[in-house]
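Model it.
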Amino acid sequence: MAHLALRNVVKQYANLRVLHEVSLEVGEGEFMVFVGPSGCGKSTLLRIIAGLDRPSDGDVLIDGVRVNETSAADRGLAMVFQSYALYPHMSVRQNMAFGLENQRMARAEINRRVAEAARMLQIEHLLDRKPGQLSGGQRQRVAIGRTVTREPGIFLFDEPLSNLDAELRVQMRVELSTLHKRLKSTMIYVTHDQTEAMTMADRIAVLRAGRVEQVGAPLELYNRPANRFVAGFIGSPRMNFLNGRIAAAGAGSVSVAFDKLPQITIPHPATAGVGDDITLGIRPEHVRFAEAGLPATVDLVEQMGGESYVYLTLASGERIVARAPGQSRLTAGEPVAAEIGEGAHLFRRDDSEAAIIAQG
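Modeled.
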């Protein structure tokens, strides 16, 4: 296990700044996930940690030691790539042993580590096969096994499941989480898939345009997002957003007015004044159907078996989605009233849309 600290890390390419003074820490044995949209800088940050790229400014520290000029091979890290990066002419056994052989490790120790990693990842029966004889999931297990044999201080994963089909991705998420619990190693995982982040991470760092927007436990980010970007990125289906303004504010509640929609009351105090423009955010599971509420029409019902997603168009023309338990009996074209109140978040509507002023 190892501890990682990033101190004001900047990455600049000519006139393009990719990372803006990123600072965060990853504790020993922690499973940290970097998540964000394409181009946000998460893979660049991982490459800087790995030593495959150097920061333009700032420091990378492993166990308190600055490693900016330390080569990738000497940092005690191991990386799993999206493309697996296996040698096609070598067997699984040879692929897993190759890095250890380059370190001139004793053959008995190499054999022990390969056998242990193969047993842990349930690929013992594949050791004599070539990568071309393996499925995508099996190749990914081999790539992970190759890093396990090195017994690194930190495991680095760069979107390792993106080439797998949906069912296999779910299976591999479980296996990686199990592997982390078994090894108790520090792991840093990069993905654009917020479902992977929510289900695997001890903590998540949400990045946007080279900046860290929020760091926290998965449910902390889900329940108490720091800003509208985090609120919209974490959660599937994404949070619904409606533009409005503060019509009245009291000690324990706030009333929100909308264009072409009835006014609603949010049972939470808000740090905003009457007349302020705001954006209301509401998770799909907090949209209820009642006799009174925002008038809407059902566009589509997705029946998932244990739950249903109901897509609505409000009388204002804005669209939202509701998550209903069980199998909904609503049909397309049916008029309904969407009740919103508990669980709502209010965001100040300015250029950054960053300031949160009330949370449900």
